[in-house]
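During the second half of the funding period, the structural biology subgroup turned its attention to how the target accommodates small molecules. The most pressing case was nicotinamide-adenine-dinucleotide, which had performed well in the primary screen but for which no bound structure existed. We therefore specified the complex as follows and requested a full 3D prediction, including the ligand pose.
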Amino acid sequence: MQRFFSTITKNPGRLFQQTVIVTGSGSGIGRALALGFAKEGANVGVTGRTIKALDETVEMIKKQGGNAMSAFMDVTNEKSIKEAVDKVTDKYNDRLDVMVMNAGIQHIDPIHKLDQKDWRKVLSVHLDGSFLCTKEAVKKMYPQKSGSLIYIGSVHSKRASKLKAPYCSAKHGMLGLARVVAKEAAEYNVKANLILPGYVFTPLVEKQIPEQAKELGISEKEVIEKVMLQDRFNSSFISLNDLSEIAIFFATFPSLAISGQSLIASHGSFFV
Ligand code: NAD
């Protein structure tokens, strides 16, 4: 009833009172999505490994008048995921409407220098993490017969780049995972979609500029211009606002017509 009244008395936002969890939301894309969801009225679970960074995101959301709480979550650890999901859903209406698998890391090395431990680390965060978070999220979504799972893949879910074997493999894997989940989850009215961004200027990208420059033997400026922003309509990084709008679109799309889909945001640098 409260939901009904709110919709007619003021603009409640497209995600009014929905519970949303974003992994790795103490920085970069995750933080931007958390802020965007909160602006649309969602109660946001800001999760990740660094409490100070998570609390900063929560503070930013509260300053803009939204609702959010932080919860520690290491996406490679099943117990920690369960505890965080329970903590957030206990506080917010015992439901989970949207879960965003965003946490990620990068590792730059050519195959012949790549340690198996670095390979495993990247796969563990992106791929094991997406699997484990999905498993926990659907335990809440299936009984409520609704929900939206959003995976932050990458253009590297569909293309390859030198020096990024673990990342490309993990991101391709997330595409396969989300497609399987879409098929299984449809029966419960739960959607699974991916956002595949090109380069977005976040800490993850900033860190790899000098690393790529060193490995490729070019300047940092050349890494930005010739590797990262090559072939774009307008030589710019993807904006956090664009990604937030795409995430809200997937979160609010009203039917299963769009599930198992992947949307590339790349300023034209990559089509399929
Ligand atoms: P970022 O480094 O700002 O954010 C990644 C977040 O994940 C960090 O907050 C980090 O603490 C968190 N994280 C890492 N390991 C974790 C773990 N085990 N458990 C929980 N949290 C963990 O980088 P970003 O660019 O915002 O990246 C977010 C996502 O977007 C990643 O999945 C990345 O692969 C993807 N992506 C980024 C770009 C880009 O250009 N920045 C492009 C395509 C896809």
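Two results from this model are relevant to the next phase. The CA atoms of residues 142 and 188 lie 5 Å apart. The beta strands are 19-22, 43-48, 67-72, 98-101, 147-152, 190-197, 262-265.
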